[in-house]
Design brief:
Transcriptional Co-activator pc4, Chain A, four-stranded antiparallel β-sheet
């Protein structure tokens, strides 16, 4: 499994593998970044904490084919009933292995801290402080603020061989 250096929040805007970025819908000091490095995707975020006058950043990495799985799973498992081929009643996650790495997508409850929904995405074989690397995306960020569209655009470029 390829390892990646942590992103540098001071230079990520100039990173040669940066393909998309999106300001966060709830925090004007936070930006989401999407990089394609060889056969991997890196989703990263950087947040400037004004009171502490410092940058906080985090990232997850996974094989780039995992992005299409994320989108397909959301569409075909979470947006369909059990009778239509979706997840069984009472199941709120799905996982798979892509290029030898386990990834997981699940429904997140209270994702925004105000009982709003979302989805969590985890790279189960990559660890940070002993826990799987994971992001939780609010429904608002995904569906209204453009993150899902950004993921779809990148997945289309991967499928067509452009990335």
């Amino acid at each position: 499994m390829r390892q990646f250096d942590e992103i540098d929040p001071f230079t990520i805007e100039q990173h040669p593998d940066l393909i998309a970025k999106l300001p966060d819908d709830r925090n004007s000091n936070k930006t989401w970044y999407l990089l394609v490095i060889d056969d991997y995707i890196v989703i990263a975020n950087a947040t400037y904490k004004e009171r502490k006058q410092k940058w906080l950043h985090y990232q997850i990495e996974f094989p780039k084919e995992g992005l299409q799985w994320f989108l397909d799973t959301m569409q075909n498992k979470f947006f369909k009933t059990e009778a239509e081929g979706g997840l069984p009643k009472g199941k709120f996650h799905d996982k798979t292995t892509v290029k030898g790495e386990r990834i997981k997508l699940g429904r997140a409850f209270n994702a925004d801290g105000n009982r709003g929904g979302g989805f969590y995405f985890a790279t189960l074989d990559r660890r940070d402080i002993g826990l799987a690397k994971e992001y939780t995306f609010t429904d608002q960020l995904l569906f209204k603020h453009g993150m899902l569209q950004m993921f779809q655009d990148v997945a289309a470029k991967i499928a067509s061989g452009l990335l």
